[in-house]
Design brief:
Layout: H1 2-12, H2 14-17, H3 23-32, E1 34-38, H4 42-54, E2 58-62, H5 87-98, E3 103-107, H6 117-121, E4 125-128, H7 133-146, E5 150-156, E6 159-165, H8 173-177, H9 189-192, H10 196-215, E7 224-229, E8 234-239, H11 247-252
Parallel strand pairs: 1-2, 1-4, 2-3, 4-5
Antiparallel strand pairs: 5-6, 6-7, 7-8
Helix pairs in contact: 4-5, 4-10
The chain binds zinc ion.
């Protein structure tokens, strides 16, 4: 039986195992990792496809929404017949159909006081695929308090942002965006509109960052903000830094 498991493992992940930067050891680390994905919209759809395909050990899914017609333009895991169904259930089914070795935990909840530090504590890495500033600030507070790395993705129109916050005392979301004059709410696709492709672009880059963090490879996006502009075909990496006056960092560090 063990040989059977090993041969399936080797066959499924052989393209990863061939890579020097991942290899068999990296693949095993991916299989032991616990990742929490908050938000099952456009970014979340792409993220969970890759988290399950790459063989993350445990994936937690947080969302309270049901699927709507306007979601189908970018939330690529859902089908027309899924309209009205719970995102968390459909997303969970998607993962189970793709990779049975992934343990999936469903959190059918709003991001309010129910979404507690207790949930965050069970995971190694938190991925933020939400679309509003209130949710992002709440997730960030929990991550800073629990010292959990937070992989951030945001989209608007043709543009996307990706960063790794709260890792080895790096800048947090609030250090970066919650300053007077900064407009984090521009990354709210419900008011600004978004190209479906941009959410996939950002989601894919977030999973790449997750894999690097788990496998201990490559330079990470700590204290950096990756900006991609699909319209002009350009990417840019901006340096960011911890804000000494950040209220969240001051409260919990
Ligand atoms: Zn901060």
């Amino acid at each position: 039986m063990d040989n059977q498991i090993d041969s399936e493992f080797l066959e499924r992940y052989k393209r990863h195992i061939l890579m020097k930067s991942i290899g068999g050891q990296g693949q095993k680390k991916l299989g032991q990792a616990k990742v929490l994905l908050v938000g099952l919209g456009g970014i979340g759809s792409t993220v969970l496809q890759h988290l399950s395909a790459v063989g993350i050990g445990k994936v937690g899914l947080v969302d309270k929404d049901t699927i709507a017609l306007s979601n189908l333009q970018r939330q690529t895991i859902y089908k027309y017949e899924d309209i009205g169904k719970k995102k968390v259930s459909m997303a969970s089914n998607f993962i189970k159909n793709l990779n049975k070795s992934v343990e999936v935990i469903e959190y059918d909840m709003f991001l309010n006081s129910d979404f507690s530090a207790r949930i965050i504590e069970e995971y190694d890495i938190i991925l933020d695929g939400t679309d509003n500033i209130e949710s992002r600030e709440l997730i960030n507070r929990h991550c800073v308090r629990n010292k959990k790395p937070l992989i951030f993705g945001g989209v608007s129109g043709w543009e996307g942002l990706v960063s790794l916050f709260v890792y080895k005392n790096s800048a947090c979301f609030s250090c970066t965006f919650s300053r007077p004059g900064k407009r984090a709410d521009i990354f709210d696709c419900s008011s600004e509109g978004v190209l479906g492709v941009t959410t996939s672009l950002v989601g894919t880059l977030m999973v790449a960052e997750t894999i690097k963090l788990i496998c201990g490879t490559g330079p990470l996006l700590t204290n950096k903000l990756l900006v991609c502009d699909a319209l002009n075909g350009e990417t840019e990496v901006l340096n960011i830094k911890k804000n000494k006056k950040c209220e969240v960092c001051l409260q919990f560090n």
